[in-house]
Design goal:
The protein is α/β, with parallel strands linked by helices. The protein has 17 helices and 21 strands. Among the domains are: about 140 residues, Methylthiotransferase, N-terminal domain (Rossmann fold, 3-Layer(aba) Sandwich), CATH 3.40.50; about 55 residues, OB fold (Dihydrolipoamide Acetyltransferase, E2P). Bound molecules: 5'-deoxyadenosine and iron/sulfur cluster.
Length: about 450
């Protein structure tokens, strides 16, 4: 864009940025950082693409048809671009990383492509792109992007926040693109995380979820040496005003003793854990390169429950991994029955280009069989979730209230176990933590009254 049109924009006031986020919580965190960074280039966020001077899609590549979905979304912006030739369209995230220049070749509407490790360069890329000039950056640079992505100081925010502490993954599960799109495992230095957490708390945050593709592999530089996740959590717990800490998502093999212990003795660490197992069959776990057995996972959960009996467990499952037999699938069902989850995510296997499972060409499970297995697994998981929700009725939980509910006088918040809880309230403010007695339950939420 020329200086003249930049000046025009400055005269007209703020430029408008529309961000659409796909996929995981880390993308949500990244989108927030991108909005804040582009704030420095004069952008403010808007909620519809029609109002925007720039549209940014923050994409996810984890499962099927991700790239196709993005191309079809981009196609929808054609008329907007005709109406507003200065409109800039950018693609960020894991599809940007995986597809690179191909995106611009296939969809010339796109002005800018930026991979997850290059977000701090967005202001330069944005300044360069537009009116036929393309800007692309999918490098894995040496510098710490988070240092360049600092939030606007003191801007108020809601009571919950994500905080990325580690990125990338070295586990190379055979089905997963993350090690390729997000790169090698990198942990942020502990002091930067503590500073960011203190800043968030000053801005009103009381509940922080630490994020990482494999967050419990965290091993950041800290005072006195390398800190693991447990040490980081214990230090964060000393931050006054920070009331709740969670982390997601984890690999069973990185669930070390001190982290298990923290679940028993660190009061601010909430009794909720998302610990994906993917399959209950040792044969499939081996083919997935998970490097643990079903039995080892079950023992691990026993140890967690020994220190924190009420911990709510969540997981991820893949059905129809190449070579999965009916017996393998039954082993997954047995594991689910044995563990009992409070909530879980389950997916049909989708071959991701470039991953070992997709390249090996093992016998694929027929689609109708995989679909039918997924239905059976989801029915079991939904039943467990319902029973878990039901078991809360009559109990008292502590709810951190996050926002107004749908109805007058109602507010919604989260229990320690991450249930959504609705309550009729009169003197409760957003950010308050109050004891609530649960009076009824549904599959996805609870209703209660303030005690
Ligand atoms: N197919 C289906 N599900 C997948 N996941 C990751 N890769 C694939 C794939 N190729 C699921 C895993 C992971 C979650 C984030 O997404 O269960 O834990
Ligand atoms: Fe992907 Fe998680 Fe396995 Fe890493 S541990 S390769 S992010 S599924």
């Amino acid at each position: 864009m020329s200086n003249a049109s930049q000046d025009d924009n400055a005269v007209k006031g703020k430029k408008k940025l529309y961000v659409k986020t796909y996929g995981c919580q880390m993308n949500v965190y990244d989108s927030e950082r991108m909005v804040e960074t582009l704030g420095g280039s004069g952008y403010e966020e808007v909620s519809t693409p029609e109002d925007a001077d720039m549209i940014l899609l923050n994409t996810c590549h984890i499962r099927e048809k991700a790239a196709e979905k993005i191309y079809s979304e981009l196609g929808r912006y054609k008329d907007l671009k005709v109406e507003k030739p200065d409109l800039k369209i950018g693609v960020a995230g894991c599809v940007a990383q995986a597809e690179g220049e191909e995106i611009i070749r296939r969809q010339p509407l796109v002005d800018l492509v930026v991979g997850p490790q290059s977000y701090h360069k967005l202001p330069q890329l944005e300044a360069k792109a537009g009116r036929g000039v393309k800007a692309l950056d999918t490098d894995f640079p040496e510098e710490d992007k988070f240092e360049y992505l600092k939030a606007r100081p003191k801007a108020k925010r809601g009571p919950t926040a994500f905080l990325t502490v580690q990125e990338g993954c070295d586990k190379f599960c055979a089905f997963c693109v993350v090690p390729y799109t997000r790169g090698a495992e990198v942990s942020r230095p502990a002091d930067r995380i503590l500073t960011e957490a203190r800043d968030l708390v000053e801005r009103g945050v009381r509940d922080i979820t630490l994020l990482g593709q494999n967050v419990n592999a965290y091993h950041g530089a800290g005072q006195g040496g390398v800190w693991g996740l447990a040490k980081l959590i214990r230090e964060l717990a000393k931050v006054d005003g920070l009331e709740r800490i969670r982390f997601t998502t984890s690999h069973p093999n990185d669930m070390e003793d001190d982290l298990i212990a923290a679940h028993g003795d660190c009061e601010k660490l909430m009794p909720y854990l998302h610990l994906p197992v993917q399959s209950g069959s040792d044969r499939i776990l081996k083919a997935m390169n998970r490097k643990h057995t079903a039995e080892q996972y079950i023992r691990l959960i026993e140890r967690l429950r020994a220190v924190r009996p009420d911990i709510a467990l969540s997981g991820d499952f893949i059905v129809g991994f190449p070579g999965e037999t009916e017996q393998d699938f039954e082993d997954t069902m047995s594991l689910v029955r044995e563990i009992t989850y409070g909530s879980a995510y389950s997916f049909k296997y989708s071959p991701r280009p470039g991953t070992p499972a997709a390249e090996k060409g093992d016998r694929m499970v027929e689609d109708h069989i995989a679909s039918e297995r997924l239905q059976r697994l989801q029915a079991l998981l939904t039943q467990q979730q319902r029973e878990f929700q039901e078991s809360m009725v009559g109990r008292e939980v502590k709810v951190l209230f996050e926002k107004k509910g749908k109805y007058e006088g109602q507010m919604v918040g989260k229990s320690e176990y991450l249930h959504a809880v609705h309550a009729d309230v009169s003197d409760v403010n957003i950010g308050d933590i109050r004891t609530v007695k649960i009076i009824s339950s549904a599959t996805n939420s609870l209703r209660g009254e303030i005690v």
